Amino acid sequence: MSYCVNCGVELDDTAAFCPLCHTPVNNPNQPVDHTSPKPFPTERKEVPPVSRIHLAILLSTVLVSVAVCCGVLNLFLRTQRTWSLYVIGAAVMLWIWLVLPLLRRKKDTLGLQLLADILAIAIYVSFIAVELDGWDWYWHLALPIILLLGAVFLFWGLTMGRGQRSTLSSMALVIGSIGVFLLGVECFVDRYFQGSWTPGWSLVVLAICLILTVPLVVVRRTPSLREEVRRRFHL
Questions:
Q1: Which long-range contacts (CB under 8 A, 24 or more apart) does 158-165 make?
Q2: 3-class SS at 113?
Q3: Which of 64, 62, 60, 53 is nearest to 103 (CA)?
Q4: Model pLDDT for residues 153-191, shown as the tens digit of each residue
């Protein structure tokens, strides 16, 4: 066994150079063995990525198995409540969220992605409506709120998806849109239960959101304040 004359590292019999400092090996008593295999790979290789199709098949198999097992178990127990619809709806929603992106060949637009996500939530809630026999609240309450939530997500994606906005502007947009979303939620809830909209707690939330948004906009528009906030909060 040879040792490097420069750094003293132990050398393999097949080493012609020190693997640590690249000093040539010159040992007259033990010539370099050029016939034995190297103790380390001579070619750099990478682990091949997992096939998207195979991964999609695996996830689909798992979700379908869970849905079918719960459905059969629900029928076997013969209970009055079809609790398996909750699991089946969740499996469908997860399939749309996880498997559909793997099956896409091209990168879809942001609108199509958000449409698929909102569709998954709407389908899951529809399964709950079937189990509870609540199509009335689904069409007049749940679905409008889901669509409003999708509109908020689409607004966020269109305004902040490309990363061109600053952190302060993004925070102002998020806070303001949350206030508008809750205002819409109260509107749908009041119209469903009372038949008319009487603004109440959502106006308080919207006012708080505006109070928080206005200083962010002022700081964003004032260079000296903006730089001070960035320096103190690392934004």
A1: 158/110, 161/110
A2: helix
A3: 53
A4: 888 887 876 556 777 888 888 999 999 999 999 999 999
User: Considering the entire predicted model, what is its pTM?
Assistant: 0.67
Identify the bridge partners of residue 2 per DSSP, sorted by sequence position: 11
Q: C-alpha distances in angstroms, 113 versus 110, 117, 118?
A: 5, 6, 9
d(Cα 148, Cα 144) in Å, to the nearest integer?
Answer: 6
Of 100, 232, 77, 86, which Cα lies nearest the Cα of 167?
A: 232
Chain Cα centroid distance, residue 67: 23
Question: What is the residue whose two structure tokens read 């009335």?
Answer: 136
Q: How far apart are CA 230 and CA 221, in angstroms?
A: 13
- Rounded to 10 deg, the angle between the 52-77 and 84-94 helix axes is 170
Three-state DSSP class for residue 23? coil
Nearest partner of 63 among 101, 91, 100, judged by Cα: 91
